[in-house]
Amino acid sequence: MKTLIVVCDGMADRPLRGLGGKTPLEFAKTPNMDKFAKGGICGILDPIAPGIRAGSDTSHLAILGYDPIKVYTGRGPFEAAGVGLEVLPGDIAFRCNFGTVNKDNIVTDRRAGRITEGTKDLAKTINNIPIEGVNYLFKESAQHRAALVLRGEGLSFKVSDSDPHFAGKKVETIRPLDDSPEAAKTARILNKFIEDANKLLKNHKINAKRVDEDKPPANILLLRGAGIVPRLEKFKDKYGLSGACIASVGLVKGIGSLCGLEVLDVPVDIKIKDSCQKALNEINNYDFLLLNLKDADNAAHDHAAQRKVSVIEEIDEALSIFSEFIKKNYLVVLSDHTTSTEYGDHTGDSVPIMICGPEVRTDDVEDFGERTVAKGGLNRIRGQDIMNIMLNLTYQIEKFGA
Amino acid sequence: MKTLIVVCDGMADRPLRGLGGKTPLEFAKTPNMDKFAKGGICGILDPIAPGIRAGSDTSHLAILGYDPIKVYTGRGPFEAAGVGLEVLPGDIAFRCNFGTVNKDNIVTDRRAGRITEGTKDLAKTINNIPIEGVNYLFKESAQHRAALVLRGEGLSFKVSDSDPHFAGKKVETIRPLDDSPEAAKTARILNKFIEDANKLLKNHKINAKRVDEDKPPANILLLRGAGIVPRLEKFKDKYGLSGACIASVGLVKGIGSLCGLEVLDVPVDIKIKDSCQKALNEINNYDFLLLNLKDADNAAHDHAAQRKVSVIEEIDEALSIFSEFIKKNYLVVLSDHTTSTEYGDHTGDSVPIMICGPEVRTDDVEDFGERTVAKGGLNRIRGQDIMNIMLNLTYQIEKFGA
């Protein structure tokens, strides 16, 4: 028996005035989810704990059974792993943007005109800066995005961002956030690294060409989301299961990678239907698969209620292909956090979850929504409960006691 | 957006034979609570954890987001803070009664005839006893009640009561409750303090007058509820919110005070309606307000079921003034613990809670009662979840992750 978890990123919402007081999930026509709910067991889920505003990273960690309060220090490590950097426990990692500064060090564009070409070459140049014996790993990602990893002795993640977070402001000098010599050293070498990188970038032929073409040059590195790479027990060792992950976004790929899941390659703009089909195909090769569907979250961040409804309906249609699968296996459908379309960001409200498969104690929820599932048979559970529940349902958990 | 928590002290109950198997809350006519429940989200709440018999002190600590298992050692510190003693972390504090002993040291009245006058003078006398370099702070409260604080090096709260808890028994010698030199020292100096106080009190002119008038003299201090004053992070620092507390009972005022809430002065016999009105007025000045309504608990301790029903109906009527408030703010109504009218004391049953305000995911509970709310959208939560849930609803919680 296999477990497939479909994470509908940011699908849960609050009641929206524009939808007559319904949430997008309540408003959308979701015959497949409703049918699954009817044959499954439902409940409300606190990704971390009641009221806690989870990120996608902390929530996915919890869903996979890791304690984010113990292992999560910042987004950098997961972004870095997500772009394919081989990070190691103890590495300090950052999210980066290629940005544009003028000669007064004012950020004129935090995304260097959403640069699409040449960042691989730019990254290559930056990888050759040696400072105080620390190794730098730098890798470009989609568009202006990149990740930076520091590896060496005596480093700390307790440092501030260089990213000023708004255009029109000066690049921030990185500051240590505690009194340790490690934080002081990390801040010092990062500031030197950024300065050196700036020199190398501004004279780079790719940027010369961009300036000629009247495009903003990618001449500055904006760092944020510092974190230390945690030592995570590999999924296979933790549970004895082979596992894989399908996600189009780097952050979730990074989580999967650091947890030891096989990260299956999909195009960044893959359609929901194709993601689901791929999951159905690939689950044959694994005991466990996590599929992340990003689009509902994007719509909510954009305050686009109708688009969120459409995405949910698209997800619902795509899920129909799992009707056979759940006769012998388990399908979990949930949202990793609430993203309020009105607010445009995550909130700490609970999310709906359903588990479908041959031996669940079905309840009388017939309609998969944030409010209906509160009467479901799972009652209220937490992200970190899910793996144990699934190991139990699939007869893969050791008896504790006799 | 503001949060107002109305704690209906001891309102929850068990089904009572005298009320046809209903609880007082189920039996009472509560049209306002029912209306609020209909427009809000309900659930059952374990103040500490399922089955744990909470006191008002431990429950209020949990409701305010502090872990009573970590910070609570006894009632003394909160009583002392509640009577206005300026306690400091590490102080050892006790609840005290002025009582009456005969010449054989037998307690003939644990409350010195519920003495109402002169305790301030008596307290002044006692404040001048120096023993082994320890500082004493002693302050009278309402009637026969008082609080004692010890401040100094090498003290412990691991000591027994001097209060024999029943009239007709000898004053207890205070004993150390562990083998530490600190407990031994604390017991030794307290016994000396009580002996010295007894000498000063029995000769005091106020007591001479009481004896003349055939009233029991307040000639002995009965100590109980030893605890060490915890170092509590101030509410403002913990949550970034300005907060206040309205309570007529010293214990809850003490909790508020030690948590750094502004304790707003109200008469000890304030009417429920006036308490609610004051809360509605004062919430304008704060982000957060906790209002404690004591009367239902008192009725239950007195085994007075009909009186408890009347108190609940009075609370219900008073709550009607919050109808406008909840259009833009959040109102939480709950009981801090169950007080069984039949048993006459707290029990560890869960309590009902409802949250009303603009963006809650309403459920179909239309009747606020211990049993009906179990089907509500909050399902089952704990006291320590409340603050996170409210910070989330009012958009005042940081995102954990990205």
What does this structure look like?
An eight-stranded mixed β-sheet of chain A has the order 10-9-11-1-12-15-2-16, with helices on both faces. In chain A, strands 4, 5, 6, 7 and 8 form a five-stranded antiparallel β-sheet that branches. The first copy, chain A, is an alpha/beta fold and 402 residues long. In chain A, 32% of the residues lie in helices and 21% in strands. Chains A and B meet through strand 3, helix 3 and strand 14 of A and strand 15, helix 14 and strand 16 of B. Strand 3 of chain A pairs parallel with strand 16 of chain B, so a sheet runs across the interface.
Q: Largest chain interface and its two residue counts?
A: A-B, 33 and 25 residues
N→C terminal distance of chain A: 24 Å
- From the spread of the alpha carbons, the general shape of chain A counts as globular
- Total helix count of chain A? 15
Q: What is the helix content of chain A?
A: 25-40%
- Poorly predicted spans of chain A: none
Please describe the biggest sheet of chain A, giving its number of strands, its sense, and whether it closes into a barrel: 8 strands, mixed
Roughly how many Å is the radius of gyration of chain A?
Answer: 22 Å
Strand content of chain A: 15-25%
- Secondary structural class of chain A: alpha/beta
